[in-house]
Amino acid sequence: MLEIKDLHAAVDGKEILKGLSLTVNAGEVHAIMGPNGSGKSTLSYVLAGRAGYKITSGSIRYRGEDLAALAPEERAAKGIFLAMQYPVEIPGVTTLTFLKTALNAQRRARGESELDAMGVLKRVRARASELKVSEEMLKRALNVGFSGGEKKRLEILQMALFEPRLAILDETDSGLDIDALKLVAEGVNALRAPERAMLVITHYQRLLQYIVPDRVHVLSAGRIVREGGPELAHELEAKGYEDIVRSAA
Amino acid sequence: MNVALDARRLKAAEEFRAAGVPHRRMEAWKYSDLRPLIDAEQVASAPAAQWSIEAEGVELFDPAAGEGAFAGIMGEASLAFATATLGLRVKAAGRVRIAFATPGQARLRIVLDDGARLDYVESAPGGGLQNIGTEIVLGRGARMTHARLAQRAGGARIGDVSVTVAEGGCYRLHCADFGSDLSRLELDIKLRGIGAQAHLSGTSVLAQGLHADVTTHVDHAAGDTCSTQLFKLVAADKARAVYQGRITVRQGADGSDSRQTAKGLLLAERAEIDLKPELEIFADEVKCAHGAAVGDLDADSLFYLRSRGIADDEARALLIRAFLAEPLDEVEDEAMRAALWAAIEDALPGAMGQP
Ligand SMILES: Nc1ncnc2c1ncn2[C@@H]1O[C@H](COP(=O)(O)OP(=O)(O)OP(=O)(O)O)[C@@H](O)[C@H]1O
Ligand SMILES: [Mg+2]
């Protein structure tokens, strides 16, 4: 599904990713952990195609295709979804209008028929009630005045709505209370399927109790310095990053 | 023949000749240079503007019987030279749709009796020299909603509007300008009576080398008067959008409340937006809030939308619409709001660099 080889990437001319390699197969969930500033969000932005994030060498292949050549919207239409660490507030665009525009843009790009307002509303409502996103929130401007946890739940609602093939969750668990964390984890687990893959970026082992990963990777200074099974997350929780980072250096 | 008016017209003509066609070295016309487009002779001999009008609940009269007020030099010119004149008087409730059909000059006088209401929609398509001077007099408790649509055009288009509002009266303006070689709406609003109100909102959406200028002066001359202004300007290519807003709160106009917001959205490096809010306060107990800011499309917002599958063009259009939404939300009449949105939809592709 996703094959990253010796990836070097720079932000505003500063190299942040320094030889990162990672393979994720369909049906798998991988967790990425690592200290603040190690490049986790940078990796997620590079995968989503954010302007200013430049691949200087190495490659990213997604379902056999070179990702670097695709615009962010093309990546979305091809099934890549990034739940952002800091969802953006957009005044003047109501959440529901945004969801409809995005869903239909993706469908159109894939050659599928567009949904009418009712069709969109039905789909949105079904997911919204599972994630406890209120009707009132859907009528408000996108993310404007939403609490931290509400923003994260809206990210997961989008994931559920768009049904991506590759979902990247960047610290979706940060700022969630325990109940919301369970809701979000259920949302993610409901989407686990043989044809889908997920990259879960987190600082906390707690999320990984609910979303049990196939592999755990530790990112430090722009590279993967350690890999393991779910037990690695426990080890990190107990010992912190210091030993691993030092032994990798 | 009204001798007083004739004298007034002569004086206006003299004053206009002395000042000449407004140009950028005049403070009030700093961002709108008329001189390269027209000369004084063309103004003095401009043909009579023609219009089509639908009116209900309105008495027509010959405005020759009144003293003329104006907002700026070109309003004064319309007073001096316009041969086309129209007077509208509303005693109870009126509705007017007026479309100016050709370039030319005109002078209008609109009078609302105490407690009267008027819903007034004006379209000023421009072309050549269009100079429309309008004087509006609102009686006690009178309410007028003035919508003005200035379509994308060529030439010099000037709207000069002078408004006086008596006690408890309310003047509302919604304007949309899609630019011309030079397009200017100049307003002078006097809140003369206690509790008088003015609420102004507008948008300019400009592409290519087009220009649009909204210049307002709101004069709080009595206590407990209230004014709000909300203008949003979008400029693409080499376009230039201007907002100048002066608010005066006179001595004794205590309890006045004025709010003014002007925001600009620059879509290209060579585009220009000039915002010039000014506040003169001579009263003690007043509330004033004003803000002006120019920015470009937010990169984070654009990326967020694109990462959700919305193509670059569509995402930009969505953000531009979102930027413009606030002043349009102020338009109470649904049909009017829809018409303004439709005009904006027409202008968006041009503003985004599509043919
Ligand atoms: N525009 C930029 N210019 C220069 N450096 C940047 C820029 N954006 C990010 N960085 C740097 O890149 C490094 C990696 O940042 P990134 O956000 O990817 O870290 P992270 O692993 O997601 O951290 P956190 O756990 O705090 O979210 C940081 O040192 C950050 O300061
Ligand atoms: Mg991060």
What does this structure look like?
The complex is a heterodimer of chains A (249) and B (355). Chain A is an alpha/beta fold. Chain A has a single domain (2-248), classed as Rossmann fold. Chain A has helices spanning 40-48, 72-77, 95-109, 117-130, 135-139, 148-162, 178-191, 205-210, 231-239, 242-248; strands at residues 2-11, 14-24, 29-33, 53-62, 65-66, 80-83, 90-94, 141-142, 166-170, 197-201, 215-220, 223-228. In chain A, the strands form 3 sheets. Chain A has a 6-stranded mixed β-sheet with strand order 6-9-10-3-11-12, sandwiched between helices. In chain A, strand 4 and strand 5 form a beta hairpin. The longest helix of chain A is centred in the middle third of the chain and has 15 residues, at 95-109. Chain A is globular. The mean pLDDT of chain A is 93. Chain B is an alpha/beta fold and 355 residues long. Chain B has one domain. Helix content of chain B is 21%, strand content 45%. Chain B is built from 6 helices and 18 strands. Chain B has a 9-stranded mixed β-sheet with strand order 1-4-6-8-10-12-14-16-18. In chain B, helix 5 (312-329) packs antiparallel against helix 6 (334-351). The relative contact order of chain B is 0.10. The model of chain B has no long low-confidence stretch (mean pLDDT 94). The interface between A and B is medium-sized, with 28 and 24 residues. The complex binds adenosine-5'-triphosphate (ATP) and magnesium ion (MG). The site of magnesium ion has 5 residues of chain A, from helix 1.
